[in-house]
Structures are given as structure tokens and as C-alpha cells.
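This part of the workshop introduces the protein records we will be handling. Getting from the letters to the C-alpha cells is the skill we practise here. The record below serves as our worked example for the rest of this section.

…
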Amino acid sequence: MVAAVVAVGLVAAVVRPTAGQGPASAYKAPRALDGKPDLSGIWQVLNSASFDVLAHNASEGVPAGLGVVEGNVIPYQPATAAKQKQNFEQRMTADPMRKCFLAGVPRITYMPFPFQIVQTPTHIGIAYEYNHASRIIYTNGTEHSGVDDFWMGDSRGRWEGETLVVDVNGFNDKTWFDQTGNFHSDKLHVIERYTRTSPDIIAYEATIEDPNVFTRSWKMSMPLYRRQEKNIRLLDYVCLEFREPSLSIDELVKTKK
């Protein structure tokens, strides 16, 4: 009987939510100068979603991951499912990141690099360490620009209590969600949600819609962790595309003549 009670207590201790660890918690973030939740700081994910947003086994150069997609399913249409399979088979050359293009949204958020959020009453800027990428989220009530073909989309934000909700559209069709070929069209529409759930965690969600590729909307979510190192800052990472990696110096010289 005593053993059973102890076992129940241990289970309860394991499953009991930790204060400030979920979006539904009562945690209230510090306030910025305008009274809105302060999201400023340097943040980074601790997952393998940049390799594959779905649950996956480890492989050469790829750590295993539990996945970040709700239900672990991306609802492709039949024709686009075949395209994703083709992308996967050609991923070593077809991934846009292999060509040093911008990662797009939401992929830039879960790249294995930190990013910095800077907040004002009318705009929120995000600077990413990867390849000097950046974006501006307009929180001044302006509408979308109506201009399409953005690598990082066109972002308009609003506050819903403790949550920053960001509506992003105007994408091109040249980015992927991960290295396995999960893709979208230029009709991609992303709704991001940033909720500070503790002093050092932001709960991040991204709802994905694309009527040209998916049968319904789907969602991914993950925590963003504040970087704790003393004097933490964004450093420099510039992607360089090497087209002739197997050539010797002499062969490279000959190709340039």
C-alpha cells in the first residue's frame, strides 16, 4: 500500500505542470515602455526541427528528434505529397539553404542559430545570426503591403493579452520548412504566436495555411530559450555556396582560366 502511494506521488510530481512553462500559465511578462509584454532578448531553440519538423530517427549528420508538428502529420494533397517525396530524394542539392538563400518563416526561427528581438511601440525587429537575416514586424496597425515575393514574408503584428500574434503573407515559393523537402507555394500564410511563459522561455507557435499544397491548416510549436551566457551577442555567420568542393587547387585554377 505504501509503495502504491509513493508511486502515485512520483507520477503526480512528474506530470504536474511547472509554473510558467506553458501558454496557459498565469505568468505575466515584464513590460516594455508601452506596457506591452517585453519579448526583447537573444533566444534560440533546442530541437532538431531544422533537419525535419516531423519525428525522425538519427542519421548521418542528423540528430534524432521528436518532431514539432501537432499530430506529427503534414496534410499534403496527393500531388504535393509526391512533390515532397521528390524533394526529399533530391534534398542534398535541392534544399534552398544549400544555395545560401534566406530560410524563410517559420524555418528561420528553428535554425540552430540565435536571434535577437528588439521591441518598440510600433515595430518589432528580429535579427538572426544566420546569414545576416532580419525582419520587421509592424505593430502600428498598418495593413499588409500587398507586395508579394518576399523570402521572409510581410509581417503585421498585434497583441492579444500576453501573446504577440504575427500575420505573415506575401511569400515566394522558394523556401522549405526543413531539410527533408517539406515545402509550400507562394500562397503560404503563417500565423505566429509568441507568448512569454517564464523569465527565460517564449512559447512559439506557427499555424500554416496553403490551399495550393495542403488539405487543411496545421500547426507547429516549440519553446524558445533565452541565451544565458555573459555578454551574449549575435556573432557572424555568412553562408557561402561552394559549387566545386571536390576540385583541387590546381583544378580550380584551371577552371577559372
Summary: The chain has a mean pLDDT of 88.
